[in-house]
Amino acid sequence: MESRVVVIGAGVGGLAVAARLAAAGHRVEVHERSPTHGGKLGVRSRDGFTFDTGPSLLTLPHVLDELFAATGGPPDGLDVVPVDPACCYTFADGTRLDMPHDPAHVPAALDAALGAGTGAAWQALHERSRKLWDLVEDDVLRRPFDGVGDLLRLARRPSEIALVAPWRTLDGLGRAMLPDPRLRRWLARYATYSGSDPRRTPSVLSVTAYIEQHHGAWYVRGGLRGIADALLARCRDLGVEVHLGSEVTRVRMSGNRAAGVVLADGGEVRADLVVCNADATVLYENLLDAPAAGRARRTLRRAPRSMSGFAMLLALDGRDDAPAHRVWFPDDYAAEFDAVLGRRPRPIEDPAIYVHAPDDPALRPDDESQGWFVLVNAPPHDPGRGVDWDEPGRAERYADHVLATLAERGTDVRERIRWREVRTPADLERETGAPGGAIYGTASHGARAALLRPSNRSPVPGLYLVGGSAHPGGGLPLVLLSADVTAGLIGPPATGSPATGSPATDPAGRPATRAAGRP
């Protein structure tokens, strides 16, 4: 029996789960409030320049391959290429480290840049993270997961419990294993991949650094926005109805069960199942009125928001041959997290500055120009209790400050600027619907916060979650895994009745116990 599924949001998670469910035999339609698709995987084009305004690196590219293989085969025109070096880091003392794409070359690069012995320290950390990745990849990231207890039950031996070390932070792990403070700074940056403070982020998230080093950093020619375009095309090939500019204002209930959605124009879409790709806070606070959601709502209210980002799009005269990805670290990295995630949030005085400037002819109007995407961490937009990013003049003043800071660190592009556009956390909130522009939903502070993201199966029957604010977390590969987990929970349409969530196989043809059960 065919079942009807409505997906709220056409971000990467929403499109990916829609494709998987359609391939499994469901009738799927997607409703997106924005006039375009892709969610945080945004794009901006002007005067011949094109900028990715969201993720700029792809890791775990095989996860993307798995999605397309499960839904009809490789897409046309998606050219994924390695980024080498993966990133160029410049530290406060002027030291420069070009981190190779190939992990075999990393120890030598570290020894050459930071001094003898740093390569061996990195190798020890890398091996530890490999064991941790082996422990969590299939049994945590690819399954529904209910928290720390599940992870500790997987770690049956004392050595594995010590490896998970839920009592240790990412900062503490760096201090224990990396003697060089610059290398500790490199590791701490991976906490920002989930919008968090490394001093409060559990060490289990060291797997993020391992993923990037072991599986490599990758880029899509023409920009990572091509991933969203390929997902939209796959959905349409599978018969998914994608409605852009169609805002969902409420999940429709029938008794205690989700039974569709209500649209801003007053229309209703009836469905057997609802999958929400909007931020979990938006779902539980604004879209859902169901007693069963009370506990989830209270939990999210207690959780701190993740960081947001302050970005500039710079259209520059001239080109350089520097690496595509560059990071300039401040002298006091801890002060950055105090400013953004402390009790009195404020813009960072001396921020870490990230630049994405790919050498891609498709992104520039001519060979005498270059586009830079400049990003610094920033507190979410919160006029009542924190920073009001819409305050007149604030954004332009801070943009000037960031460019002046970059100049002080030896890279002054101010005379090369043809034009610039500024994107604040308030802009992110308006464009993506993420509360305050908090990119990753909630911060991963403490083992419970990191591992107890909102479940893919909501407490309301017939309602599921997908995307960066749900399990297993934010970032392109985890969002794609989230779609796999959610589609596995739903499974193919059940014969003779609405979908029950207890299928014999998942949408890729694997036993459902792989997605919905536990060993």
UniProtKB/TrEMBL annotation:
Cross-referenced Gene3D superfamilies = FAD/NAD(P)-binding domain (3.50.50.60)
Q: Where is the composition biased (Low complexity)?
A: 503-519
Coiled coil feature spans: none
Query: Where is each Amine oxidase domain found?
Result: 13-483
| One GO BP | carotenoid biosynthetic process
A GO molecular function annotation here is: oxidoreductase activity
Q: Which reaction does it catalyse?
A: all-trans-4,4'-diaponeurosporene + 2 AH2 + 2 O2 = 4,4'-diaponeurosporenal + 2 A + 3 H2O
Q: Which InterPro entries match?
A: Amino_oxidase, Carotenoid/retinoid_OxRdtase, FAD/NAD-bd_sf
Give the region (Disordered) as residue ranges.
492-519
The domain of life for this entry's organism is Bacteria
Q: What pathway is this protein said to act in by its record? A: Carotenoid biosynthesis; staphyloxanthin biosynthesis; staphyloxanthin from farnesyl diphosphate: step 3/5
Kindly list the cofactors needed.
Answer: FAD
Sorted UniProt keywords = Carotenoid biosynthesis, Oxidoreductase
Checking NCBIfam families in the record gives: crtI_fam
- Family statement drawn from the similarity comment of this UniProt entry: Belongs to the carotenoid/retinoid oxidoreductase family. CrtP subfamily.
Which PANTHER family does the UniProt entry name for this protein?
Answer: 4,4'-DIAPONEUROSPORENE OXYGENASE, PHYTOENE DESATURASE
Could you identify this protein by its name? Answer: 4,4'-diaponeurosporene oxygenase
Task: Please name the source species.
Answer: Pseudonocardia sediminis
